[in-house]
Amino acid sequence: MVVMVTLATIILIVCMVGKYCASLILTIFILVLLGCRFASVPKAMKKNFTYCYDNSYSNAGSLMRLGLYRYGIKYSKSDIENIYKGRLYYKKGKMVEDKSWMELDSQIVYHYNIFYENGLYVSGYWGTLSYKGGICIPDSNELSKNIIGFFKDAIIKREKHSFYNDLSWGKYIVHGDTLKIQNTNHPSFMAPTWMPEEKWYLIKSGNILNPFGFKYIKDSPERNVSDKIILYDKKILPAIFFPTKELPSPKYSWLLKQKWFWCDEQQYKEWNKSNK
After folding, report:
1. Residue 22, SS3?
2. Which of 170, 198, 153, 192 is nearest to 254 (CA)?
3. Do residues 248 and 151 make contact, with C-beta atoms less than 8 angstroms apart?
């Protein structure tokens, strides 16, 4: 707030002089946007996001394989119709209805979860498989190659990559045979909608996690959020371990840079100093 008042005062003085007013306003506007690329974290979310990071190894490795998991959401023909019917797209200067969905029998939308040894978690979009006359479009192996390429690119570009800045990151814990995750998206300054949530998986075996349920984490006093777990729909398929040679390190995650996410402030300061 103080910074904004100071900037407003500077603009007013310069504009009163009459020189460079427009250029100054444009320059400051660009700098503010660059400095505020992502939305500020609500106080309520900091309070209710209870799985803090302590920079220690998780005990989940004794019950499951840590690393990359893929899970899907299966949509029938009627589901596809409900989702896509009436959607419009721009073609040759006018809006037309998309009817390509009518040829599809079903779809599976895949996402991935990565569980790291230090308790960090990240999730993202894997790809969509469409089934038409018993034929899978595109080939499943093609989606796998694409996501592996995405990870390789993140390893090269590190903190500049969208893997570290734009995805939903969080922390997971193990309670008995249940894997519990608290994670949140990283919204932009222009669309500051936070979507923190808690998800539960049942550890079926070392390679399979069965989705159980989820609940929303309260991120503002005005938002009414139930503390009860909402059971997952049967459309959500089990998460299956997907072996990979190398995954991006979690050390560049945007969430690790948040002091409120750490259990110990001094530990955060030491980590932050060593990673500059």
Report:
1. helix
2. 170
3. yes
Q: Phi and psi of 79, rounded to 5°? A: -60, -45
- Helix (H) and strand (E) counts for the chain? 7, 12
Measured CA to CA, the distance from residue 189 to residue 97 in angstroms comes to 32
CA distance 261 to 54: 9
Mean pLDDT to the nearest integer, 166-187:
95
Which stretches of 105-222 are DSSP H helices? 140-157, 162-165
The single-letter code of the amino acid at 27 is: T
Q: C-alpha 70: how far from its chain's center?
A: 15
Give 30-46 pLDDT, tens digit per residue: 444 444 566 788 888 89
The packing angle between helices 2-17 and 21-35, to 10°, is 160
Cβ-contact 183, 199 below 8 angstroms: yes
pLDDT at 29: 46
- Give mean pLDDT, residues 207-214: 95
Among candidate residues 161, 198, 167, 159, the one with its CA nearest the CA of residue 185:
167
Closest of 217, 208, 250 to residue 51, by C-alpha: 217
User: Residue 230's closest CA among 220, 210, 216, 209?
Assistant: 216
pLDDT of residue 8: 47
Phi first, then psi: give them for residue 63, nearest 5 degrees.
-110, -25
End-to-end CA distance of the chain: 27
Q: Distance between CA atoms of 239 and 143, rounded to whole angstroms?
A: 16
- The string of pLDDT tens digits covering residues 136-155 is 887 778 889 999 999 999 99
| Rg of the chain taking only CA atoms, in angstroms | 23
